[in-house]
Design goal:
The protein is an alpha+beta fold. The protein contains ten helices and 20 strands. Strands 1, 13, 14, 15, 16, 17, 18, 19 and 20 form a nine-stranded antiparallel beta sheet that branches. Bound molecules: FE2/S2 (inorganic) cluster (FES) and fe (ii) ion. FE2/S2 (inorganic) cluster (FES) binds next to loops.
Length: 398
């Protein structure tokens, strides 16, 4: 295992040398970063937002696709455009588990094979095939595999064992590069400041965690050690998922308590990304507590729907409209994180950053990413990642 501790990191040269020659942020097709992320299942959509018989356009890692759910309940992802005359596939009809183009009625099955062309000879259809991406539902999200060959094991990471209520958040579309947010999820210190307005950073900041990070066969383990020796453990699954314990959302008034979340940061393109979150709340499904939680959740969802979108509020703060300190919103943590992440710029050269000891988890992840991307650039196989065992879980340490 490659462990980085505060003692190992003494200068910014460490990080800049790790990055030399590779772009860690881009996931465009054919780039080392794009090839790397396409080796994993990535979350692309909230499951409940794509109903049976429904088709929608999606953009993931700078490529456009159509997502649809067939009559069987299976989710499918195929090319955005029909190869006949390039009409958009999502404008058409879902028939069974197939999709029919709106323009001249060509029909494709879930593997992308054309199976009907109403105005053509029957022999033509079998010569036409569109791209089809393996896709499956897990934890209330649709995961897809955009790489070549057979996809890796599914599910791509384990979840909380035992009874719990699944809570899937409304996705957010964040106007900056995905890596900014993934790195933010590794940044335990920012919580005491970015999320303090309304509270007190002075009281939180008296006991900031000492952060360390450790590479694992499946990603990275992060530890935050408090003054009294208590350790908070958080997990980062390669290439873009953070599993961590978090407090109830701002507007939930504490109902449901702390929860375990699985947080995917999925590139739409290099300058935009999705936050796709689901979590497990420690409540017995079907219990009275679960009903109470569902009622509070519905009330919370209504308050979010009635509020200005969090991204718009964050955009105002970035533009200097309103004060960060005074901002109130049912999704306040989202506003706060987006303002700090997107406020850095859409896609930022990071050579001039002044990283310190507290940034060790970010430095460690960049080193891992740089190593893997350089291997891809050099035509080498890179690390064989494995699925994490289910007994390594996040802990709060208090
Ligand atoms: S463009 Fe799709 S059938 Fe013609
Ligand atoms: Fe945050």
């Amino acid at each position: 295992m490659n462990v980085v501790t505060p003692q190992d990191f003494s200068s910014e040269a460490d990080w800049s040398s790790a990055r030399a020659g590779v772009d860690l942020a881009t996931t465009k097709p054919g780039t080392p970063g794009g090839i790397f992320m396409r080796r994993f299942w990535v979350a692309v959509h909230r499951s409940q937002d794509i109903a049976r018989g429904e088709a929608k356009p999606i953009r993931i890692m700078s490529e456009n696709f159509t997502i649809y759910r067939g009559a069987s309940g299976a989710v499918h992802i195929v090319d955005a455009h029909c190869p006949h005359r390039f009409a958009l596939m999502h404008l058409g009809w879902v028939e069974g588990d197939d999709i029919r183009c709106v323009y001249h009625g060509w029909k494709y099955d879930g593997t992308g094979q054309c199976i009907e062309q109403p105005a053509e000879d029957s022999s033509f259809a079998r010569k036409v095939k569109i791209r089809s991406i393996p896709a499956r539902d897990y934890l209330g999200l649709v995961f897809a595999y955009f790489g070549d060959g057979e996809p890796p094991a599914f599910p791509p990471f384990p979840c909380k064992q035992g009874n719990a209520v699944l809570d899937v958040w409304v996705p957010e579309q964040v106007p900056c590069n995905w890596l900014q947010s993934y790195e933010n999820s590794m940044d335990e210190v920012h919580v005491a400041f970015t999320h303090a307005p309304g509270g007190s950073h002075a009281s939180l900041a008296v006991d900031l965690p000492k952060v360390s990070a450790e590479e694992t066969p499946w990603g990275m383990l992060r530890h935050g050690v408090r003054r009294d020796g208590k350790i908070r453990v958080s997990l980062h699954y390669a290439p873009n998922i953070t599993r961590v314990l978090v407090p109830p959302r701002t507007g939930m008034d504490g109902v449901g308590g702390w929860r375990e979340i699985y947080f995917s940061f999925t590139p739409i393109d290099d300058e935009n990304h999705l936050w796709l979150l689901s979590g497990h709340v420690d409540i017995e499904p079907g219990s009275a507590a679960a009903d109470e939680y569902a009622a509070k959740q519905a009330e919370y969802d209504r308050s979010v729907a009635a509020a200005r979108p969090a991204i718009e509020v964050a955009r105002d703060l970035i533009a200097g409209i309103g004060r960060f300190e005074d901002t109130r919103h049912p999704n306040l943590a989202v506003v706060q994180d987006v303002a700090t992440q997107a406020g850095q710029g859409r896609m930022v050269r990071r050579d001039g950053e002044r990283l310190g000891r507290s940034d060790i988890a970010i430095i460690q992840w960049r080193k891992i990413l740089a190593r893997e991307l350089r291997a891809i650039a050099d035509g080498k196989p890179g690390k064989q990642w494995s699925v994490a065992p289910s007994d390594i879980v996040p802990t709060l340490g208090f």
